[in-house]
Amino acid sequence: MVGAAVVRQLKAAGFTNLLLKSRVDLDLLNQASVNQFFAEYHPEVVVFAAAKVGGIHANNSFPAEFLYQNLVMASNAIQGAWEHGTQRFLFLGSTCIYPRLAPQPIVESSLLTSPLEPTNEAYAIAKIAGLKLCQFYRRQYGVLFHSAMPTNLYGPGDNYHPDNSHVLPALIRRFHEAKESQADTVTIWGSGTPLREFLHVADLAAGILHLLLLPEPPDLVNIGSGEEISIRGVAELIAQVVGFRGTINNDCSMPDGTPRKLSDIRLIKSTGWSPKISLQDGLTAAYQDFLRELASQRLRSV
């Protein structure tokens, strides 16, 4: 989802010299393959959007894979880029790197000030290691390696797996299937009270290009919408967009995750970027993308 959005943004901005490798072409878990890639192509700029990602269920169920795979991919790519002369490396993480009870909105300086959220601790640790590698390579070697931490993302190319997807695509699929089957109720995990921030992936892509054009970007910067909504509220909004008319129930036996997670985006806004797509408009567009992908049998569900 993120990589494709970045490619669309770069092409729209007139960039044609893009070096694109899928996971089929390049196994980022294989250090030798990564080194061979950098030795052969010597990319000037790298946007690192690769990650093993998922929602609460996936993070909670497979913490070893989330820590190992994200840690290895990041370290292989960052080291390979430095060894072979990459001039600029932008590492993408997530705002889940911040402490569970960080003061809200979360500023970049909150990193490592208190314990992480247990349900995504493994993923967060891997992403913290990646951003710290970029920070230390920049400090020690003078290379322009820097990081951006997006909030919860959604949009074209999202993963709609029924168990392992993030909250927005999971709810879009659940409400759509409930509407199609004429179900009376949809059940959502947890109490519905946690507050979350969402950003359309096209806004993120615009933010990434903006950062790449800054001569001296911050080592670490948040990219978000700066607005929050409860899980219950976003479920009701998705039900409205999809056209589901039934009842929404809460399963309070399931975990809520972090109670509140709103990123402070004053730093990136001070450099000249701000989000453009409202949640209402973004969800409407995302549902239409879902329907098109479903109809063409291209719906991502892995």
Structure description:
The chain is α/β, with parallel strands linked by helices and 302 residues long. The chain has helices at 2-12, 31-41, 56-61, 63-83, 121-141, 167-180, 201-212, 231-242, 266-270, 279-295; strands at residues 45-48, 88-92, 144-150, 152-154, 185-189, 195-196, 198-200, 220-223, 229-230, 247-251, 260-261. It has one domain (2-295): Rossmann fold (3-Layer(aba) Sandwich). Helix 5 links the parallel strand 2 and strand 3 (144-150). Helix 2 (31-41) runs parallel beside helix 4, helix 4 runs parallel beside helix 5 (121-141) and helix 6 crosses helix 8 (231-242). 41% of the residues are buried. The mean pLDDT is 95.
Give the arrangement of secondary structure elements.
Elements: H1 2-12, H2 31-41, E1 45-48, H3 56-61, H4 63-83, E2 88-92, H5 121-141, E3 144-150, E4 152-154, H6 167-180, E5 185-189, E6 195-196, E7 198-200, H7 201-212, E8 220-223, E9 229-230, H8 231-242, E10 247-251, E11 260-261, H9 266-270, H10 279-295
Parallel strand pairs: 1-2, 2-3, 3-8, 4-7, 5-10, 6-11
Antiparallel strand pairs: 6-9
